[in-house]
User: What shape does this take?
Amino acid sequence: MATLIGNPLIKALIVLVLISAATATGDAPFIVAHKKASLTRLKSGAERVSVSIDIYNQGFSTAYDVSLVDDSWSQDVFDIVSGNTSQSWERLDAGGLLSHSFELEAKRQEMFYGAPAVITFRIPTKAAQQVAYSTPILPLDVLAERPPEKKFEWVKIAG
Assistant: This one.
């Protein structure tokens, strides 16, 4: 068996099969999107939610008419402070990255469970719009009662 794997012809055949399998997935875009949200408590007592969504094209061709919609942020709970919850781009090249961010302000206390953002795009070889979803975010405990941090005591303990 060891002499079989050591044979250069067998090695070349194995490499050829692996390369064929890798390219057999097609010459299409493969969209991966990562959604992140973080809370920031302001001195006024208000709380802001910073949202960023990174869209990657891990495929072998360009995605066209790329649109992002993140409408899981209820207007009853959040006000948009900056940016928009949707964005469009003409294209996303193979191996490329698009980023979008916006900021919200919470109106009331709530445990918020956000849905993934929806990304639609077009492939020239297919008539139908393609759909991809971002990763979901962890639940956000918006305007939760948090005990004040005692940062000076941490310094005393550490020092």
Observations:
- The beta strands are 31-41, 47-57, 63-69, 78-82, 86-92, 97-106, 110-112, 118-122, 130-133, 140-142.
